[in-house]
Design goal:
alpha/beta, Rossmann fold, UDP-N-acetylmuramoyl-L-alanine:D-glutamate ligase, Protein-Tyrosine Phosphatase, Chain A, 3 domains, 7-stranded mixed sheet, about 20% strand
């Protein structure tokens, strides 16, 4: 759907965060007098009222009945359409879409294709992969936009001048369906992996998987780039009009030990890359496969990955204080991500901080891994901390690692340091890799990572900027 197609329809905005404000500005840039109703919080209503827009009605009460009065509801990504209000509105005929859908509709050519757009999604590694894609394209001299879920809403860059040669777009599972309903086809869509996540938003693991995969099953990208090593992706059946390119497969780009191969040709040794974790080095294979899908020479660009600047809050080594290294992996919101983080420090003595907002994820695989590959200490915290602690207690007694329970982040850090000191740890590491969202105590994972950095004695302003965001 193009923004111009909203003209003459009953339209509401639901949410007034950064995405909501971007949607408002984009709509007003095309349709300055379109009547709009905004549903938001009391505090946000004050901000919206200050706009002085005579064609904007602001409401702080939202329910299914009020939403049902509209034909189109442009909602912020964090608002689930599966909740009571969204479900009632959808049943009454309201279309719930996100700003991502409007952006794609406005950028499709006459054939319905956004020919220079590469979309990246996946449970783990999508931000680093998208940023690395933009970096390699720029290293080849292509003006490239880095936007989407990574920190720059697409509607904030609706009409850039001059237009970029390529768009590197990160999509969360909250946004993949928006591409599908936009009526536009991205040139390339990359899916890295699928693990359980965001069950509170999607309602179930099955729905999460289905929503995540809509980028390739329903959006009909020209080319889908898929991970051959992922059990869900490797058996996926796609529409006939979608070509598939595999990474992690011996016939294409893949890792053998630490060496990156293209088929049988060794290309680079990845051990010197500034990519934290083997999974991120493996995702370089996804990036190069996507670049080839665009018709470019990927092999000549592989070495440019050595100049990549890692993203903040993703296995980010902050530095050392009193002989202890502090690592900020606040982006970790699943137990699988925490296991990947621990694997990166298998040769160090680690105290890991886990727990946060409880959205019902199963930690049994994490507990099983602790039986054979436990760190020196695990400190639980947050709303799901007691549940994780109870699950790990018998494992800790058997495997012999120090298991502790903390009241908050400050307490968790103190207990981590104490556990490492009591263990006479060598090369000690305090690792924040919560495996859970930050809702409740912090605004988001960035706020949590900044708090961790500050309490560890580092300047949070020096560790938070996302390199390369925007168009360059």
């Amino acid at each position: 759907m193009r923004i111009s197609q909203l003209d003459g329809q009953r339209v509401a905005l639901w949410g007034w965060g950064r995405e909501g404000r971007a949607a408002y500005r984009a709509i007003r840039s095309r349709l300055p007098t379109l009547p709009l109703t905004l549903f938001c919080s009391q505090d946000e209503a004050v901000d919206a009222a200050a706009l002085g827009d005579a064609h904007l009605v602001v409401s702080t009460t939202v329910d299914g009945e009020s939403l049902s009065r509209f034909e189109i509801v442009v909602k912020s990504p964090g608002i689930s359409p599966y909740g009571e209000a969204g479900s009632i509105a959808s049943a009454a005929g309201a279309r719930l879409i996100g700003g991502t859908s409007l952006w794609f509709g406005d950028h499709a050519d006459e054939n319905g294709i956004v020919a220079n757009a590469v979309c990246v999604t996946g449970t783990k590694g999508k931000s680093t992969t998208t940023s690395l894609l933009a970096h390699l394209l720029r290293s080849a001299g292509h003006r490239t936009a880095l936007a989407g879920n990574i920190g720059l809403p697409l509607l904030e860059v609706l009409d850039p001048q001059p237009a970029p040669d390529y768009w590197a777009i990160e999509l969360s599972s909250y946004q993949t369906g928006d591409v599908a309903v936009s009526g536009a086809r991205p040139a390339v869509a990359v899916v890295l992996n699928i693990f359980p996540e965001h069950l509170d938003w999607h309602g179930s693991h099955a729905r999460y998987v289905a929503d995540k995969l809509r980028l390739v099953t329903d959006a009909h990208p020209r080319i889908a780039v898929l991970n051959a090593a992922d059990p869900i992706l490797s058996t996926l059946q796609l529409p006939e009009d979608v070509a598939v390119r595999w990474f992690g497969d011996a016939r294409g780009w893949h890792l053998r030990d630490d060496v990156l191969y293209r088929g049988d040709d060794a290309v680079i040794d990845t051990r010197g890359l500034p990519l934290p974790g083997r999974h991120n080095r493996g995702n370089l294979a996804a990036v190069l496969t996507a670049i080839e899908a665009l018709g470019l020479d990927a092999q000549s660009l592989a070495t440019a990955a050595f100049d990549f600047e890692p993203l903040p809050h993703r296995l980010q080594t902050l530095g050392e204080r009193d002989g202890t290294t502090y690592v900020n992996d606040s982006i970790s919101t699943t137990p699988h991500a925490t296991l990947a983080a621990l694997d990166c420090f298998a040769d160090r003595d680690v105290a890991v901080l886990v727990g946060g907002h409880d959205r019902g994820l199963d930690w049994s695989d994490f507990a099983a891994a602790m039986r054979a590959h436990a760190p020196k200490a695990v400190v639980t915290m947050g709303a799901n901390g007691p549940r994780i602690h109870a699950l790990l207690a018998p494992v800790a007694a058997e495997a012999g690692f120090d298991l502790r329970e903390a009241s908050d982040l400050a307490d968790a850090m103190n207990q981590a340091r104490d556990a490492l000191q009591r263990a006479s740890a060598k090369s000690p590491v305090v690792l924040l890799s919560p495996g859970a969202p930050s809702f409740g105590v912090w605004r988001d994972y960035v706020d949590r990572g900044r708090d961790f950095a500050r309490r560890a004695g580092f300047d949070p302003d020096m560790i938070s900027a996302i390199p390369g965001l925007g168009i360059a």
